[in-house]
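User: Hey, my collaborator sent me this sequence without any context and asked if I could get a structure. I don't really work with proteins. Can you help?
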Amino acid sequence: MHKLVVLYSKPADPDHFRDYYVTNHLPLVMNWPGLLAWRYSFDVAATKGEAPYFAVFEGDFADAAAMAAARASPQGQRVAADVANYATGGAVIVHYPVQDGTG
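Assistant: No problem. I've predicted the 3D structure and written it out in structure-token form, which is a compact way to encode the shape of the chain:
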């Protein structure tokens, strides 16, 4: 599995961010080809001090190629272009192959 994580810094208008994200952005995300699962939260907390991020998104893809294809697709381009409509604080995007742990 390959994970895409988006970390959003605090926006100028947190209420607008929340409303726009749920009403407009997530419906675009749901149309991403190859997206196996996704989750998000506005309740980002730090174990110590103030959290450096306001919100987080996680998307799961079969592999890096599936994620790259999704991001390059017309739907992925719409998702990327839409970020400017709500993420006034900016966003950090990271991705990585997931390693299963044993315990």
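In plain terms: The beta strands are 2-8, 37-41, 55-61, 91-97. You can pass these tokens on to your collaborator as they are.
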